Amino acid sequence: MDFQVTGRGLDKRWPDGSQHFLDQEEAEEAEDRQLLEPQAWSTYMERRAALREFLTSELSPQLLRHHHAHVELLQRCSFHIQMLPEHLALGDQKPPLLPHTIFQLVDPCKFQRMKKVGAAQARIQLLLLGDLLEQLDHGRAALDTLLESPDPQPFLAGWALVEQRLAGLSAVMDNFLAMMVPGRLHMKHRLVSDVDATKLPHIQLLLSTKMPVMFDRKESVAHQDWATLRWFVTIQPAAPEQFELRFKLLDPRTQQECLQRGIVPVATCTFEIHHLLPDRVYKFTIKRVKSYTLVYEPWQDSLTLHTKPRPPEGPAPSLLGKPGHP
User: Fold this and answer.
1) Is 208 exposed, middle or buried (0-12, 13-18, 19+ CB in 10 A)?
2) β-bridge mates for residue 85, sequence order
3) What is the pTM of this model?
4) What is the Cα–Cα distance from 210 to 182, expressed in whole angstroms?
5) Are the C-beta atoms of 127 and 84 separated by less than 8 Å?
6) Residue 98: which residues within 8 A CB-CB, separation 6 or more?
7) Which residue ranges in the chain fall short of pLDDT 50?
8) From the CB of residue 136, how many other CB atoms can be counted at a distance below 10 Å?
9) What is the pLDDT of residues 245-284, one digit of tens each?
10) In what order do the strands lie in the sheet with 19-20?
């Protein structure tokens, strides 16, 4: 019987004389198995499978892409203060105060200070979300490299460090998910002045978000001297909203053309702007009208449209009129 193994086990001859070549991964696995004791090999394979399962279920590329998209959406949202009563005073049988009623009792100066606190908290939240997501990306890349490495030592003698890394990434993910939802604002002083505290429920301040206002780029069209603009909000609000539409001519050539700009308050999600110049480029922006509860608005959508040129003029009519028949 002719049976021969040469080199790294890649050249094997069987009785029929044919040669079978293993692919690189199988060859490396076969060699590693020869170098390890059976118990060590079993432990090595179990831990590789556990790491692969973690990457598939807890830190998959699809999940990270989903989180990236969510953070990008949150970076386009506007942040608002939501004010609600925590509970009624003991023995008070009156119904809870409505939020708009509470605003009438709040000290305006103290509320403005709380809006600055809310804006700072929103900025910090967005920065931390970006930092945590970057840690998850780098952690996923490092674990991918470890899984592709032929070295079995990290899965044996160095497995405790790998477990620490997995636990650390799980904690980062937990913090990331907890921070995705805007939280409560902490007050150092009472916001209400000159009101009997026994009849007023405690007030809690929350940061809430509103979905961004975005142009409908398919339905927004520029014509020769006018433009039709449409926009939408991903989640329709419960109450009608007011919007602020801005437009301006880019690269004006004269002082008169510098006046080709304006701000238009709009109560619907569509508007037509007339008296534009033909064959010119205009920039349009859309956002909500600034409200009393707005604390932070890092982004607003913009759209650039090019108006159509005037149609070419026909040839000048002949002074002699139409040619006659011969």
Assistant:
1) middle
2) 203
3) 0.75
4) 11
5) no
6) none
7) 1-22, 88-92, 196, 318-326
8) 19
9) 999 999 999 999 999 999 999 999 999 999 999 999 999 9
10) 4-6, 11-13, 19-20
